[in-house]
Amino acid sequence: MRLDSSGLRVLSRAECLRLLGSAPIGRIVFTDRALPAVQPVTFCLDGERIVIRTGPGSKLAAATRHSVVAFEADAFDPDLRTGWSVTAVGHARAARDASEVAHLARLPLTPWAAGERDHFILVRAEQISGRAIR
Question: Considering Cα of 70, then 27, then 49, then 9, what sign does the dihedral take?
């Protein structure tokens, strides 16, 4: 078991992906008009790709097109003082190919927000890191 300088357990890539796949909500960090922006999103994993379902004209869809973004998800139990946090960084892109969109539409990803959500953003987890506290 490897600990960082704060005494937190450093998670392996496999652990990070497993934990990331267990979280129903994450936060995507992107640039909006040259400023950092953070938006909570529902998501799921497709292999090592983070899949977000949104509207085609949304600010998120426009801002993440061919951009480097960060994505974070976590879970904590304040009573037990346990938890984990995983951050992934990678390039975001919109799914355009009809067969890829059909595949993504079958994933277990149901948006919480109302309205049409037939646009998919994919983030390839090029760098991924995580920490856990027990």
Answer: positive
